[in-house]
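FORM 7B - TANDEM STRUCTURE REPORT

SECTION 1: FIRST PROTEIN
SEQUENCE AND TOKENS:
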Amino acid sequence: MSVALSLRGAARDIDWPVWIAGALALTLVLLALLAPWIAPFDPDRQSLLTRLRPPIGFDRADPRFLLGTDQLGRDLLSRCLHGLRLSLFLALFGTVTGLVIGTLLGMVAALGGRIADALVMGLVDVKLSLPFTLVALVVIAVAGSSIPVLILVLGIAYWAHFARLVRAQIMALRALPYVEAARSAGASGWRMAVVHMLPNIASPVVVMTTLNFSNLILLESALSFLGLGVQPPTATLGSMVGQGRDYMASAPWIVAAPGLLIVITSLAVMLLGDHLRDRLDVRLRDR
């Protein structure tokens, strides 16, 4: 009896949404990593004889294509796996690019004096005031739509958020006793930032990184939907939705499969980001 009660109590204490989100995120990452080996077909292989076949369970379904085929007869399951792989790759490296740029500029603003602070924060204000779609159009029109360019475009999407966060955190830490002690011992400003300050602002930066990763997945999907992302026939989740929008009335599965993957991926990462914020923020943890 006591064992059953303890098991029930443990089950109540488990944060099921976080565990489910973690399991989903791990599953999606594994599917993306193993896509070249588990995809049943070449994602770009066309077969007009099998075009617009519905998923298994519907009339005219072909058992070889579990999720059906698109307007060119390409296997949707294979394209979803490869599209998930590329979408996660772009979001990951875009997040890292924005993190590096924003952290460096935030440190410059906090430690470089009034002129450096005014210049960096002015640049941040300009960035936040410009419509990002317009910036993306200009960059892609000038530099093309290759994968490195897309990583740069995604990286500059949210660097200003990192810069403002790092600047605010470092300026709050500058007056603390251990920072004053390091300064009195002769440590330079940049040494204090790298050795003493950055480790203490890791928690909010990690939380913002996870949340921005989810935002970049949606942003990459939106750019690909508008035709500004990776060009056909290479698949990303957003480009698959964009290419299938003309067939939503007659073949809704073309949009439903990649669209559902976008929703699941974004939701899983957002839930994990919220959980990290609750765990790492002392003020929320003590409530």
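SECTION 2: SECOND PROTEIN
SEQUENCE AND TOKENS:
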Amino acid sequence: MRHTGFRRTVVAIGVCSSLALAATACGSGADGAASGKTRITVNCEPPRSAKVDRAFFEEDTAAFEQAHPDIDVVAHDAFPCQDPKTFDAKLAGGQMEDVFYTYFTDVRHVVELGQAADLTPYLKELKSYDSIQKQLRDIYTVDGKVYGIPRTGYSMALVYHRALFREAGLDPDRPPATWDEVRAAARKIAALGDGTVGYADYSAQNQGGWHFTAELYAHGGDVVSADGERATIDTPEGRAVLQNLHDMRWTDDSMGSRQLLVINDVQQMMGSGKLGMYLAAPDNIPILVKEKGGDYQDLALAPMPGGHATLVGGDGYMFRKKATPAQIRAGLKWLDHMFLTPGKGFLGDYARARKHGAPVGLPEPRLFTGAADATDQRVKQANANVPVENYRAFLDGNGKLRLKTEPPHAQQIYSVLDGTVSAVLTKEDADIDRLLKEASGKIDGILARD
């Protein structure tokens, strides 16, 4: 899924993309020069409606230009900045900015269209590159060449309600680590009654297919083969995902009778204190508090159960194919300054974020490793205004999981799997083997059209 990817400094969550612009407004021209400076265009500046974020972005960009008087940065603020409806049109028309925002799932597509500059020869210009998590760097690597720089990353987790755990006699400091433990905990929470649900899952608007994928990864399976040519859901792991959902729904009655849920439904249940657990990324926590009535003290995170893998997503920046070497070097310096200096910049100035009431101390995005990560975490913890101890289980366990991105043709595949998941959650006599076989055939058809 295209996640709530743009982690803003103040409001913490948002989606950032750019509407189509005239060609003359995007690329910088043949040499990128303006008044003797190297001129670069960038996108994904927060919109004017996000006044504080916009002010921070402009403040940070001005500081960059002061430190680099030979570089002129022209930011475009259209919102959202990576609109699927216009993204391909901008690429095909040569209208993309010199430095443009992409989701992880866009990388190979942009490269295959021949619209991305090869950054491999310039990586030494990016001070922070080696400190970025390798698994995230690899997402922007295609056939041995680097075409982009990750800026944020998220991984799926188990969000759970500590107060309900205590009421149900469960230890909130020892969240479920296996799917059997999830099922057992869900039964105890549902037994509290008064409309309390132990575990909830999505099953509509492609979100059911998204979560099926995350759960399949967590069981050690995959959606498509390594070569991308066939479905791999009709497996013991795929059956385990559906059987677990079926049994919680129909045998245990721990998922409630209301189904065909989407993210907003589940968030509302958790925020109101009527849900024990669901799967989401850490950036759901502020939404549950600010929009759904939740309390930071009650909300906690654990790694995906099973110990195998977690679905990851995120975003970064790529460079248009026609960008000059000078523009590429300038753009990399801008990325270093804005997003990739631990504890500083638009995403890392935690003192500034705290001053303006943004949640500080959530475990993700966590971009760096080694000394850079230690610096970033130290500054974050010094300014934390949320209960960081509630995320300890996630921090301790998530790093041990394999990070897996979404499958090719994700939205089409999720549409197919929506029907599979919804059938299991709405029909007690659903034939899991038949559902997997039929979905597998449909996914094979999608992959064959590639």
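SECTION 3: OBSERVATIONS ON SECOND PROTEIN
The first strand starts at residue 33 and ends at 34.
Residues 2-30 have pLDDT under 50 and may be disordered.

SECTION 4: SIGNATURE
Preparer initials: ____
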